[in-house]
Write a structure and sequence with these properties.
The protein has 201 residues and is mainly alpha-helical. Helices cover 63% and strands 0% of the residues.
């Protein structure tokens, strides 16, 4: 896709501190890098657009939320709108599914590599990208069926009565249980001694 050199509108914030706007810019830079937007110019255009949208809301509406958080929320909103429009989804589609399916479809068709300047564009989106993403779109499966699991008694083998009686007897006689444990331990030591003697005749 050719790069359409649209002018970048100058952005001069009228509220907030320079540190806050710089932090928002850095968050958006990382956000776009994570989506493999490698062009510095394209990133700058997108970041300026998002910061303009936040600035237009006014300080009164945004003073309770950090600017960096608002920037990421705005980027996610634009991304969901972009996915919905490209993949021709209903407007009331759940945004969580739109974002997940859209990202999968974008990367499955190598969108960032094949169309590096199409990301979040509203006008210059190639039809090839739309077709490729729609083919790659992962449709959600049937709704999750919630089932209940009923606990079952433990299977004690072919003769559960004998096994149950034996366990009860051992629990009632801790001395016998300890003796059996020591006998098993001594048998294991005897086996180790015999093996060591057999290795060195």
């Amino acid at each position: 896709m050719d790069l359409f050199l649209e002018p970048i509108e100058p952005f001069v914030p009228t509220w907030g501190s320079p540190e806050e706007w710089n932090s928002a810019y850095e968050k958006l830079e990382s956000y776009l890098r994570a989506h493999e937007v490698d062009s510095h110019l394209h990133r700058a255009r997108l970041i300026t657009t998002i910061l303009h949208r936040i600035s237009f809301r006014g300080q009164e509406q945004t003073r309770t939320t950090p600017l960096a958080t608002l920037a990421i929320e705005e980027a996610n909103t634009l991304l969901n709108e972009w996915f919905t429009r490209i993949m021709d989804l209903p407007a009331d589609t759940d945004t969580s599914f739109t974002a997940a399916d859209g990202r999968v479809a974008l990367f499955l068709c190598d969108g960032p590599l094949r169309w590096p300047y199409a990301f979040l564009e509203t006008q210059n989106v190639p039809n090839e990208l739309k077709t490729a993403m729609r083919k790659s779109l992962m449709r959600a499966g049937p709704e999750l069926q919630i089932s209940s699991m009923v606990p079952r008694p433990i299977d004690l083998g072919l003769i559960p009565e004998f096994a149950d009686d034996a366990m009860d007897a051992l629990n009632r006689m801790p001395v016998i249980k300890a003796l059996i444990g020591w006998l098993i331990f001594l048998a294991f030591l005897t086996f180790l001694f015999w093996r060591s003697r057999s290795w060195h005749p």
